[in-house]
């Protein structure tokens, strides 16, 4: 781990580490609350939080194992990551299946016998506690989203996108908890099954998005990307190109565009066209495109404020002056 040399990466690492602790705290409280109230929904939410924690760990590994800030990163793909991923996936699979079976058997006995099958008992403090926990998770995600330009980290971006993309799941959970508190106990197993299914698909997405970033340092030659990108109308130059993943499966591309002043107002359209052109060529692809205009914005020049797109000596192969 060579974080000392790069304050930006170090701050990113620190943010992710804080995020991990907050997520683990939320996970612990959810599990205890689920145990105390016998709520399957709270257990399902804890399962989902566990996936978020797993996603945070993957991002941390990606940030920590990058040997140089902008250079050819050496990504760890050792036994530890493989074993950890397998352990997490099997734990989640086992817990998820147990949850679904318990919920289904509760629903089944509720239908077949008149006795009260749902043993969940929620009171007001639990609902309040969950509101606070979900607000805390949302706050840290919103902060990361707000600062994402400063950090310029793919791993952080993927994780933030994942968490923000799942916000609606937390909203549904909260509505469900309020319903259970209002004695609608049947909601508990029904939503628990739904949330578990979504959590598993969410895990699938985390693996699909984040594992490629741990695998291949460079998926496509920067020259080839610059060749395509500079053909798009309005693009003057294309620099700082990085790509990872597996062409045909999932590729992640990060690049900085210098666009013609006339196109400054429609920069987002140029960006969309760039992404479309790359996707046409390389298949499934996620692009993070930074647009630079004439007065260089701070985010892009944060690392090397004095050098104007000249190559830092340690990273000769990833910086490219296109067009
Ligand atoms: Zn999630």
TrEMBL record:
The chain crosses the membrane at residues 12-36, 85-106, 126-146, 167-184, 190-208. Residues 223-285 form the Cation efflux protein cytoplasmic domain. It comes from the Bacteria. Signal peptide: none annotated. The keyword Transport applies. Residues 17-215 form the Cation efflux protein transmembrane domain. GO terms for biological process: intracellular zinc ion homeostasis. Keywords: Membrane, Transmembrane, Transmembrane helix, Transport. It is a multi-pass membrane protein. Belongs to the cation diffusion facilitator (CDF) transporter (TC 2.A.4) family. NCBIfam families: CDF. This is Cation diffusion facilitator family transporter.
